[in-house]
Amino acid sequence: MTAVPGSPLRRRVTGLVGGLVAVAALAACGGGDGGGQPAPAPAPSPPTAGTACTQKPTTEVRTADELTEALAGAQPGSVISLAPGTYAGTFVATAQGTQDKPIAVCGTRDAVLDGGATDGGYTFHLDGTAYWQLSGFTVRGGQKGVMTDRAHGNLIEGLLVEGTGDEAIHLRQNSTDNVVRGNTVQKTGLRNGKYGEGIYIGSAESNWCDQTNCEPDRSDRNLIEGNTISGTTSESVDIKEGTTGGILRGNTFSGAGMTDADSWVDIKGNGWTIVGNTGTDSPKDGFQVHEILDGWGLDNTFDSNTATVNADGYAINVTKNEERNRVGCDNRSVDAGQGLSPEACG
Q1: What is the CATH number of the domain that holds 88?
Q2: Is residue 150 included in any domain, yes or no?
Q3: Run means of pLDDT, 10 residues per run, the chain, 346 residues
Q4: Measured in whole angstroms, how far is the alpha carbon of residue 186 from the centre of its chain?
Q5: Is 334 in a helix, a strand, or coil?
Q6: Range of the domain at 173
Q7: Residue of 221, 275, 171 lying closest to 12 (CA atoms)
Q8: pLDDT number for residue 51
Q9: Do 336 and 306 touch, CB atoms closer than 8 A?
């Protein structure tokens, strides 16, 4: 399998400073651009280097009411510290931080944001935010765990997200240039197994009119790195048509107990780099690439992934447009009945 010359995504990843990977990507997709839609907007400044949770808190909270008040009053540079305990309810952040002065919510796993019933609500909603950092605490319950809408430059790091009705972490409505790193995701899909993804990027085309004014959900240039995902009823990671230029790197997937999907990862967007991930126990394939709409599912690259499938499918199944997606020969297939990929690696 070979890529069309000049078509793969060109990108650079900058900055591993103070533990934060700051992503800046330059996308050059050499083919379909999603049905003639305009190209993705240039990247804003990447998330600030370093984690604000290493700084002295500006606000310490112990109750759900105090957390709600702190979120409403947050300003650039605010650092909200969660005391151990349970914070019952759903929480919304809308303020804008800056690259130099992010807004942070910090806690240990003993600080639990509990969204309650799994049939409604987002336990933590970053709604139109920029440069927020969520670090260390537990997000539990609710229909969805952590949701971002129209959000950019945010860091979601080191959380435990579990027991959700649908997906655990979702970047949506043109959320760009975010970092989702080092989280543990488990026990999703308690309301509806079909929607129990671990991490979900973008929106399905059938939802674009509800979410993005009938235009593609260009949740672009997001970095999904170093997460451990298990106990999901649907895919560990679902990357939708309309998204471009992201990186899926160094994650660990387990498909044991997966009931409503047949791979750890579905790629339906363009120009994604999928590198250094490890998966075990899938119902069918390890990774899949699909063309849901003409011009999507193109120019994705797979390198140095290890897929212990333990099933009858492929390690990496590019279901269409094999000439416009590349599977490197350094990917490793273990106990995949059909082998590495439908086409030769390259």
Answers
A1: 2.160.20.10
A2: yes
A3: 36 34 35 40 48 94 98 98 98 97 97 97 98 98 98 97 98 98 98 98 98 98 98 98 98 97 98 98 98 97 98 97 97 98 95
A4: 14
A5: strand
A6: 14-24+45-261
A7: 221
A8: 84
A9: no
Question: What is the side-by-side strand order in the sheet with 160-162?
Answer: 85-88, 111-114, 138-140, 160-162, 184-186, 228-230, 252-254, 278-280, 306-311, 332-336
Q: CB within 8 A of 65, min separation 6: which ones?
A: none
Q: Residue 3: inside a domain, yes or no? A: no
The pLDDT of residue 47: 52
Is 149 within the bounds of a domain? yes
Count the alpha carbons within 13 Å of 129 in the hemisphere toward its beta carbon. 31
**Average pLDDT of the chain?**
89
Distance CA 119, CA 340 (A): 39
- Residue 50 has a pLDDT of 63
Q: How many domains does the chain divide into?
A: 1
Residue 290 in contact with residue 265, Cβ under 8 Å?
no
Cα distance between residue 199 and residue 187, in whole Å: 12
